[in-house]
Design a protein that fits this description.
Number of domains: 2
CATH architecture of the largest domain: 3-Layer(aba) Sandwich
Order of helices and strands: EHEHEHEHEHEHEHEHEHEH
Helix content: 25-40%
Number of helices: 10
Low-confidence stretches: none
Shape: globular
Structural class: alpha/beta
Strand order of the largest sheet: 1-5-4-2-3
Oligomer: single chain
Strand content: 5-15%
Radius of gyration: 18 Å
Length: 271
């Protein structure tokens, strides 16, 4: 199970490494780090999704090099055998992207979890919060890339003909159908040929918890007709909400490891 509940985390605050990966869409004018500094779950370390992505590209949220990932995680004081709990205070459940990154770079999937309901649920339950920035002792984290968990544009194009995997898009239906303009400049409207659409928010309750596995199974079954498939690639606008779908699917298929088209529509939709 890729999720933990707030009550469990409250009892285990000192036994795990906690990451705040709050990231907001640019149009919201919100700043995840500034919000983190005001208050966060005790012992939380902030993970900057923009800064901790590849900077030598014009595409957002792309995976960094193995060496850079090792430096990022070592600077966070995280060891290879640490249990990691990731949360956010975001409308796009950005913690799931951080979850994916750790799994891609070889952290054992059973040691990486997302907090169900995130900071919003934690605060509503009147659980502890503070504004203390933890002191970090640098570690020597060793990463290993799981290159089968990422797809590039060439592989996506080749798959249109070969049909070796399914592509599911997490954007909203109007964007997927090309009925509205893309929020990022320089992108055409539309979708990847032969892909299907499951908007990520279909899988999330109003309190930002994930829907039940029964509800998630029904939504995926309507699109796949087979819930044991492991050759599913998720895409979205910039590689964030695709990871929400990937985590949701892992809740109903325990053998599935997240596979993401890293460039997503930010790359594929370039004019």
């Amino acid at each position: 199970m890729s999720l933990v509940e707030t009550d469990w985390l409250e009892k285990n605050l000192d036994n795990v490494k906690i990451i705040d990966c709050s990231w907001h869409m640019p149009q919201t004018k919100r700043n995840g780090y500034e919000e983190y500094k005001k208050y966060h779950i005790p012992n939380s370390i902030f993970f900057d999704l923009d800064k901790n992505s590849e900077t030598e590209t014009d595409l957002p949220h792309m995976l960094v090099s193995l060496e850079r990932w090792e430096n990022i995680v070592s600077d966070m004081g995280i060891n290879n055998d640490d249990m990691i709990i990731i949360y956010d205070n975001s409308d796009v459940i950005s913690a799931c992207r951080c979850w994916y990154n750790f799994i891609f770079f070889g952290h054992k999937p059973e040691l990486v979890k997302v907090l169900n309901g995130g900071l919003e649920k934690w605060i509503k339950e009147n659980k502890a919060k503070d504004d203390i920035i933890p002191k970090i002792t640098k570690t020597k984290y060793i990463a290993k890339e799981n290159k089968n968990l990422v797809k590039n544009k060439k592989e996506i194009d080749r798959n249109i003909v070969e049909k070796n995997f399914f592509v599911i898009d997490a954007r909203n239906i109007e964007r997927f159908k090309g009925n509205v303009k893309e929020p990022r400049a320089g992108l055409r409207s539309g979708n990847i040929e032969n892909s299907t659409c499951i908007p990520f928010n279909f899988l999330i309750n109003s309190d930002k918890t994930f829907k039940s596995t029964k509800e998630i199974s029904k939504i995926f079954f309507e699109n796949l007709k087979n819930l044991s498939l492991n050759n599913i690639v998720f895409s979205c606008g910039s590689g964030v909400t695709a990871c929400v779908l990937a985590l949701a699917y892992s809740l109903i298929n325990g053998k599935y490891l997240p596979i993401i088209y890293d460039g997503s529509w930010a790359e594929y939709g370039k004019i």
